[in-house]
Amino acid sequence: MNGSGPHDSLKGEKDAKQNGHEEAEPGEDGNDQEVIVIQDTGFTVKICAPGIEPFSLQVSPQEMVQEIHQVLMDREDTCHRTCFSLQLDGNVLDNFAELKTIEGLQEGSLLKVVEEPYTVREARIHVRHIRDLLKSLDPSDAFNGVDCNSLSFLSVFTEGDLGGMRQKHFLERNHCPPLQCLKVLTMSGWNPPPGNRKMHGDLMYLYVITVEDRHVSITASTRGFYLNQSTAYNFNPKPANPSFLSHSLVELLNQISPTFKKNFSALQKKRVQRHPFERIATPFQVYSWTAPQAEHAMDCVRAEDAYTSRLGYEEHIPGQTRDWNEELQTTRELPRKNLPERLLRERAIFKVHSDFTAAATRGAMAVIDGNVMAINPSEETKMQMFIWNNIFFSLGFDVRDHYKDFGGDVAAYVAPTNDLNGVRTYNAVDVEGLYTLGTVVVDYRGYRVTAQSIIPGILEREQEQSVIYGSIDFGKTVVSHPKYLELLEKTSRPLKIQKHKVLNDKNEEVELCSSVECKGIIGNDGRHYILDLLRTFPPDLNFLPVEGEEMPEECKKMGFPKQHRHKLCCLRQELVDAFVEHRYLLFMKLAALQLMQQKANKQESSAALENGASAENGAADGERPESEDGKLEDGVTGLDQVKELAETMASDDGAVDPKSREVIRNACKAVGSISDTSFDIRFNPDIFSPGVHFPESSKEEVQDQKQLLKDAAAFLLSCQIPGLVKDCLDHTVLPMDGATLAEAMHQRGINMRYLGKVINFISKTPGRAQLDHIFVSIRLGIRHFKPLWDHGVELSGLSAAISHFLNCFLSSFPNPIAHLPADELVSKKKNKKRKNRNLGNADNTAWASMTPQELWKNICSEAKNYFDFSLECENADQAAEMYNLQKITLLREISLKTGVQILLKEYNFDNRHKPTFTEEDILNIFPVVKHVNPKASDAFHFFQSGQAKVQQGFLKEGCELINEALNLFNNVYGAMHVEICACLRLLARLNYIMGDYSEALSNQQKAVLMSERVLGIEHPNTIQEYMHLALYCFANSQLSTALNLLYRARYLMLLVFGEDHPEMALLDNNIGLVLHGVMEYDLSLRFLENALAISSKYHGSKSLKVALSHHLVARVYESKAEFRSALQHEKEGYTIYKNQLGEHHEKTKESSEYLKYLTQQAVALQRTMNEIYKNGSNANIMPLKFTAPSMASVLEQLNIINGILFIPLSQKDLENLKAEVQRRQQLQESMKSGEQLEAEDKAVEEKEAEPSMPSAAIPLTQSSA
Fold first, then answer.
1. Are 51 and 145 in the same domain?
2. Residue 833: inside a domain, yes or no?
3. Hey, which residues does 500 pair with through a beta bridge?
4. Per-residue pLDDT, 1181
5. Which of 64, 90, 854, 1004 has its CA 20 to 30 A from that of 628?
6. Residue 594: its pLDDT value, please?
């Protein structure tokens, strides 16, 4: 069901999930039933808290009592309470009980909130909570990237809630200074209380300075908080008079500071008004690369966190440290038989992963900052390893010449990410009984740190004795183990790994089902772990020259094989899947062709065979007989079909003649299948691995494997790269920045190291997409170059070093000089012996002598070596001109790639008199974190079936499925996640198409907030979401908001890319139309004409896009009564329509009608003018019709340019559409297949409404696939 069955692995994860879904098709209702069980009907309880009126609260039976606690701690009137219990009829409710298990709790029950005595832990939690409430509107946590806070600016542009109810408050919020409730709230220096005071119930002491400048000392005791008589220098714990004993700190402060009382309640009002999505924590930390200058305020909780967390214990968890490995593995072992169980399991897995990632990131930073003691302190720094908070950390250096044959340190730097990909893949296959380690890779300050959970017992034993499967020395000594073979056998099919034999140093054959360096260790907990999965996928021969091996022609033509800087280049999983898919189609064609020939020779062949042949014919034409919502209707994959044929032949000798068996055998042989009765392609990951030897007996098999690898390498060059470029030319893929380009390449299985090849390919195509992508190579050059320069820098010089580097790279100032304060230099030299943290032996200040010329030379050579791309320019200024780049875009790319945070201000890059950056502009360095993204599989099935339904035109059913998916996603991921964002976007679009504008607006608002919070405020995805939201705002007649949002999107787009991008045309068309709607004609023209220019450049002056653009411009001229210009543009449009679509197409007719109308208007105007000239003031003038555009007509045009068309479909059109849908899927375009979302009948062929929206219409956010 989870796609881990042995059969459904044809297309890797994506389809495995679909097949899994299809198997359950017969019991589909069962599935829905399960879902309904989860959303049991809620009921209402009354809650009575001290000091306020009782209020009612809606709860659901699934909730725990704890969740009511959370609600109360969040409500405006009860938020200051943390230490209380809930009582029903005098009985205290257990925090961890589900509501449905509590006797007597029903509709209308009264729950009392009872204040409980404090403990030290409760008092701390209380102070921390109060501090959180005080800081709730302060964005500093989001800028500093702590506690999973991140930024969101939507409410600034919509001025509050889009419903329009809360506008007033929000205007205040945006313009008033932040409210200050207290000057200082901090732990007192008198902590902890001495023994005799502990016996009086003192738990801890606080020190507060109120806004009125009153200094007070407060005792937290078991009964609550009161003022004591201590001062800063005298300890007198006796209660002051009056002592104002209060159970909550807020009540106490309300009594001693009137300003606190006023501001605190105002602050809570505002806090509660914010959209929940602005304040929920995100699952993984998002960092901002810019931040304003903030003053550093006193903050006891932050200070305390900084010290306690370094010890690695988190005090709110029983047992102090978390056993990460145990948590990660136990969640995997949870049952998964039915939907509720699977949801619980996936939710637990996701939660533990996100906690583990956060802890690992904190630990890695602590390690690099030097806050953690190494477990082998006597060795040199490179070789040190660390344990903190039950996580094991190692640095990305080649420690014991482990990677000597693979490229030394460079290989050691790549290995962790390869290993992480392996972990990701094995986790996705999810075989019971096979365990992987929790793995997180963190790049911070130029170091790469790998964080892993710890196998129980591994630290007590030597590695040699614990490895019972695989090899610890790259294939000299190899061992195997039957249990591991059995477990790995289950993964071999989905991962396309071939079981094979290798020789160890004693020349004995050992059987393996993974690469040799994949090690199996049985932990003390009896679980079977696998680690070092860095070679899960087969090697990439284009970058692995092997003596005596000939590469295929396609590769040689492009200059491969090439020596790469390390030998760990693997093909991506996406490529392996695409290659197998490609081979499968080939296999079907071959088998079908041969069968056809036989059929022609032998009319009397059996019926069984005919069926087989006809089924295969369909497939041979490349239309695989399947529809989106499942592989073939009866749930058999195409793969199984051939298998059936093969099996029938094998079992039923009489019925099937040997010839057809021969057919399958030949086809198998031709495509390189490892079995000769069915299609099955697998790779041997150890081929070409230095140090691995194969026995004589498998010589032939190894030869076949080598050939297969060469074919795969050639396939990447001959199919995937041209495919990518074609998609860019068709505008099905529109990368906006480095990250989106990398994603587009990775989806097609193309590694980043092929970038130079992609660019060369583009420059040879007669395409115009060149400029779109080229800039990325420069920035990637930097990405690989920067770490070399970070290692050798002492902490005290880091900001100077970074600003110097940025000056050399981006500033036009000819010779930037690094600022080295003299005294620091002296002390650095002395410290060097003592400080063992400096990993490079280079002179510490070598960076200071770097010149822009040198840096540029390094970047060019890096681009040449790594990407095989030659930069034809002398410096960044020239590059910016030549490739049409903006320096600000480059700055963003560098900062995001390397984790640098920069002061938010206007930078002048072109000043030749002073450098652009000073060291004050470098605010912070953040970690760049790579981790596993656990998936919600059931939710994903619902999402996919929903999309399928929508694409077949069943909007209502689609909508229900997507809503269901949304519920399940929320169940697994909590409220914030990229996939939920995609779900909301699609829902909003469906609401919109079905005419429910306000619902569309509310869903899209959530999608925008979520995209800002989870992906970042200027992520290309966020820009798209802003555009959708603007459209729905316009439909809800909130015109000024729509304009605000579009301007915001345009501003972000300028920052991320610049003017010159096809998306910009779409944006400007949108802005121009809205402006036209509000009768700002001149401004509207500026945007529309800009859009026209960009469209002509990217789509060619003859494309339908451009015709539409001409029409939009003509309409504005018409509104301005400049008929001559209007006619000119409409004629251009008419000509394009006529040439592209023919005379009789409705578009051409519409256009010609409009031309007639314009001509009439122009003639009428001319007549009137003549009349006036002739008769002067007493002329009788016919009133002219000047039309201000109606909102409806503007909205109609907006829909057209955004790719939303409402067209009634005939049955035939539907059939065409389905065929089209399938064709697209074959191109593996599920990502971008939103084009026919609204079923644009003919428009599909005409590419009429093919703006880049579709890519956003149906997103499968597989960013991490």
1. no
2. no
3. 512
4. 61
5. 1004
6. 81
The pLDDT of residue 1069 is: 94
User: So what's the pLDDT on residue 844?
Assistant: 57
Residues 89 and 129 in one domain: no
How many angstroms separate the Cα of 178 from the Cα of each of 135, 181, 300, 667?
Answer: 10, 10, 20, 73
Does 1093 share its domain with 1157? yes
- The better pLDDT of the pair 1203, 1240 is held by 1203
Q: pLDDT tens across 692-715, in order?
A: 888 888 888 888 889 999 999 999
Tell me which DSSP letter residue 540 carries: -
Same domain, 1095 and 1081: yes
Same structural domain, 290 and 375: no
Q: Note the pLDDT of residue 1179.
A: 62
For position 846, what pLDDT does the model report? 67
State the total domains in the chain: 8
Question: Which residue segment(s) compose the domain that 741 sits in?
Answer: 713-776
SS (H, E, C) 265-296: HHHHHHHHHCCHHHHCCCCCCCCCCEECCCCC
Q: What is the mean pLDDT of the chain?
A: 79
pLDDT tens digits along 1033-1048: 999 988 899 999 999 9
pLDDT exceeds cutoff 50 at 1163:
yes
Distance in angstroms (rounded) separating the CA atoms of residues 168 and 1063: 34
Q: Are 65 and 208 within one domain?
A: no
- Residue 497 DSSP label: B
What is the rounded CA–CA span in Å between residue 596 and residue 207? 90
| Burial classification of residue 887, based on how many CB atoms lie within 10 Å of its CB (0-12 exposed, 13-18 middle, 19 or more buried) | buried
Angle, CA 1138 vertex, CA 1137 and CA 1141 arms, to 5°: 70
Last residue of a domain, one of 1057, 1072, 1093: 1057
Q: Write out pLDDT tens, residues 955-969.
A: 889 999 999 999 999
Strand partners, 511: 501
Evaluate whether residue 1259 is within a structural domain: no
Q: Is residue 547 part of a domain?
A: no
SS3 per residue for 961-1011: HHHHHHHHHHHHHCCCCHHHHHHHHHHHHHHHHCCCHHHHHHHHHHHHHHH
Arithmetic mean of pLDDT, 83-108: 89
Question: Residue 1134 and residue 1147: Cα distance in Å, rounded?
Answer: 9
Residues 1070 and 1194 in one domain: yes
Q: ∠ CA 61-63-64 to the nearest 5 degrees?
A: 120
Angle of helix 408-429 relative to helix 482-495, nearest 10 degrees, comes to 90
3 state SS of 520: strand
Q: How far apart are CA 1264 and CA 1014, in angstroms?
A: 14
**Domain boundary residue among 1001, 1026, 1057?**
1057
pLDDT in tens, 743-775: 888 999 999 888 888 877 877 776 544 445 444
Report residue 845's pLDDT band, with 50, 70 and 90 as the boundaries.
Answer: low
Q: What tokens appear for 524 in the block? A: 């003390």
Cβ(586)–Cβ(723) below 8 Å: no
Residue 894 contacts residue 887 (beta carbons within 8 Å): no
The 8-class DSSP code of residue 41 comes to P
What percentage of the chain reaches a pLDDT higher than 70? Answer: 79
What HEC string does 911-935 produce?
CCCCCCCCHHHEEEECCEEEECCCC
Least confident window among 349-363, 437-451, 591-605, 1134-1148: 591-605
C-alpha torsion sign, points 798, 800, 801, 803: positive
Whole-number Å distance between alpha carbons of 690 and 679: 30
